C-alpha cells in the first residue's frame, strides 16, 4: 500500500462519492475507503438484517416482514427535486445510466389539524381547501408575478426589488394571509423555519420557482426517487469514479491520518499499512466527531436531528392511498421553531416488501425530549408496526482545510431534498481544486 494518491476519500456517503467521482473524471488519482462493509455511510440504505443490527443488535427481524433482500431502508430521508442541482449533476455525468427513478406521488401539508395536498395543477388549486376564494385570487396574482419576473425588464417588477425588499414585504404587497405565507414558505420554498421572511426575497423567489418548475416537469409532485433506495446514489458515483481509475476499499479501518512536522497531511494508516496522500477528504465521523478528538469538527448551531424510521402495514391515512408522499408540518402549526417532515416510500420503489410502507419522520431537535417533538408527525401515520429512532448531531468543519490539506464535509441536515448536499460538494470542490465546479459533459465511450 505504498502507493501515492492525489486524493484519499474517507467514507462513502453521497457527498464523498460525488466528489470522488468528479475528481476521478478530472484526472485525479483517487483512493476511496470506508470502515463499513456497505456503501453510503450516513446516507446508506440498509436491508432488514442491517437495520435491526444497527438499532437492535440483539433482535432478529420478524419473519412476517418478508425477505431481507426486499428491503433498502434509507437512514436519511431525502427526495430529489426534479429540476434541482443534484439532477443536473446526475444528468451531466451520465450517472443516470445506473439508476432508475420513480416519481413521488404527492406532496402534502399539515394545516389546522388535517393534511391537504399541495396543489399541482390549476384545477387542484381551485379546489384546494388550503385557501378561501378571495385568497386564491390573491395567491394567483402572486404566482403570476413570480413567473412573469424578468431581471432585465423593470415592467415585470411591480416596484419590488428582490435583492433589497424582504420576503415579508412581498407577501404583504399581494395581501397574502399568514396561513398562505406559511404554506408557500414551508411547503414550496421548503424553508425549515421562518428566518427567511425578514431577509431579501431573492433566495425565496429562486426556491419557489425551482419548486414550481420541478412540479411542472412530471405533474403530481416535484420529487423523484431512485428505485432500490437512496443508497443507490453513492454507489452510482462510485462506479463513475471506478471507470476513471478510482480505487475502492470497503470494510477498512481508518486508524490514523498521518501528518508531517508542519501538520500537513501525508497519508492515511489502516492497521500496519499506510497510503500516501496529497489531500484527504472525509466525512466528520473520521475526524473526532462524537468525542473531543481532533478539534477539526464542531456541532452546528441547530445541534441535532431526530429521525424515526417507521414500518407501516398501510399507506398514510388522508393521503389518497398514495404509494409515496412527502408531508410537511409547518412549525407554526405545532408551536415549534422548525418544521417536521414525513417522507414515505413503499414496495413500488423496491425498498420494502409488498403491502409494507416505510415512513421517516424527522425534525431539528429543540428540547431534551426529542421523541415528543416528532409526536405530531407520528400521530399522522396510523398504527406503527415497528419504529427505529435515531438522534444525530450535525457536524461542520472548523477550518477550510487549506492549512493541512484535510477537507471535511458536513453532516446531512434536516432538509427534505439534496440541494444543501450539492452546495457542500461545490464548496469542498472549490477548496480542493481551487476553482468553481463546472460540469463538463463526459465522454461515454471511456467505459467501452
TrEMBL record:
GO terms for molecular function: Rab GDP-dissociation inhibitor activity. One of its GO terms (biological process) is protein transport. InterPro entries: FAD/NAD-bd_sf, GDP_dissociation_inhibitor, RabGDI. GO terms for cellular component: cytoplasm. Gene3D superfamilies: FAD/NAD(P)-binding domain, Guanine Nucleotide Dissociation Inhibitor, domain 1, Guanine Nucleotide Dissociation Inhibitor, domain 2. Belongs to the Rab GDI family. This is Rab GDP dissociation inhibitor.
Amino acid at each position: 500500500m505504498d502507493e501515492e494518491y492525489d486524493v484519499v476519500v474517507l467514507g462513502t456517503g453521497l457527498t464523498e462519492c460525488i466528489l470522488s467521482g468528479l475528481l476521478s473524471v478530472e484526472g485525479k488519482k483517487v483512493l476511496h475507503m470506508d470502515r463499513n462493509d456497505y456503501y453510503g455511510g450516513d446516507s446508506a440504505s440498509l436491508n432488514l438484517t442491517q437495520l435491526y443490527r444497527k438499532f437492535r443488535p440483539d433482535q432478529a427481524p420478524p419473519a412476517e416482514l418478508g425477505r431481507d433482500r426486499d428491503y433498502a431502508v434509507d437512514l436519511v430521508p431525502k427526495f430529489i427535486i426534479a429540476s434541482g442541482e443534484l439532477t443536473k449533476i446526475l444528468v451531466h455525468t451520465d450517472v443516470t445510466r445506473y439508476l432508475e427513478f420513480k416519481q413521488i406521488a404527492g406532496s402534502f401539508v399539515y394545516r389546522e389539524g388535517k393534511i391537504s395536498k399541495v396543489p399541482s395543477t390549476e384545477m387542484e388549486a381551485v379546489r384546494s381547501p388550503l385557501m378561501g376564494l378571495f385568497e386564491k385570487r390573491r395567491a394567483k396574482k402572486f404566482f403570476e408575478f413570480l413567473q412573469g419576473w424578468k431581471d432585465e425588464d423593470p415592467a415585470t417588477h411591480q416596484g419590488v426589488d428582490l435583492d433589497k425588499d424582504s420576503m415579508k414585504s412581498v407577501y404583504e404587497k399581494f395581501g397574502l394571509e399568514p396561513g398562505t405565507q406559511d404554506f408557500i414558505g414551508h411547503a414550496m420554498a421548503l424553508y425549515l423555519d421562518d428566518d427567511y421572511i425578514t431577509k431579501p426575497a431573492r433566495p425565496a423567489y429562486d426556491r419557489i420557482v425551482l419548486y414550481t418548475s420541478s412540479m411542472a416537469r412530471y405533474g403530481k409532485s416535484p420529487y423523484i426517487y431512485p428505485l432500490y433506495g437512496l443508497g443507490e446514489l453513492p454507489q452510482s458515483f462510485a462506479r463513475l469514479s471506478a471507470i476513471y481509475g478510482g480505487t475502492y476499499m470497503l470494510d477498512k479501518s481508518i486508524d490514523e491520518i498521518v501528518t508531517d512536522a508542519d501538520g500537513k497531511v501525508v497519508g492515511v494508516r489502516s492497521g500496519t499499512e499506510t497510503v500516501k496522500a496529497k489531500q484527504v477528504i472525509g466525512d466528520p465521523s473520521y475526524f473526532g466527531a462524537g468525542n473531543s478528538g481532533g478539534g477539526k469538527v464542531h456541532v452546528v448551531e441547530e445541534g441535532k436531528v431526530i429521525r424515526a424510521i417507521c414500518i407501516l402495514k398501510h399507506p398514510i391515512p388522508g393521503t389518497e392511498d398514495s404509494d409515496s408522499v412527502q408531508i410537511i408540518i409547518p412549525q407554526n402549526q405545532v408551536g415549534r421553531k422548525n418544521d417536521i417532515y414525513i417522507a414515505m416510500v413503499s414496495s413500488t420503489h423496491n425498498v420494502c416488501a409488498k403491502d409494507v410502507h416505510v415512513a421517516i419522520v424527522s425534525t431539528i431537535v429543540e428540547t431534551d425530549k426529542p421523541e415528543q417533538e416528532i409526536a405530531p408527525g407520528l400521530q399522522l401515520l396510523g398504527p406503527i408496526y415497528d419504529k427505529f429512532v435515531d438522534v444525530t448531531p450535525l457536524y461542520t468543519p472548523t477550518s477550510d482545510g487549506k492549512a493541512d490539506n484535510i477537507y471535511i464535509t458536513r453532516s446531512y441536515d434536516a432538509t427534505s431534498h439534496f440541494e444543501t448536499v450539492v452546495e457542500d460538494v461545490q464548496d469542498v470542490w472549490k477548496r480542493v481544486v481551487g476553482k468553481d465546479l463546472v460540469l463538463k459533459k463526459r465522454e461515454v465511450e471511456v467505459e467501452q
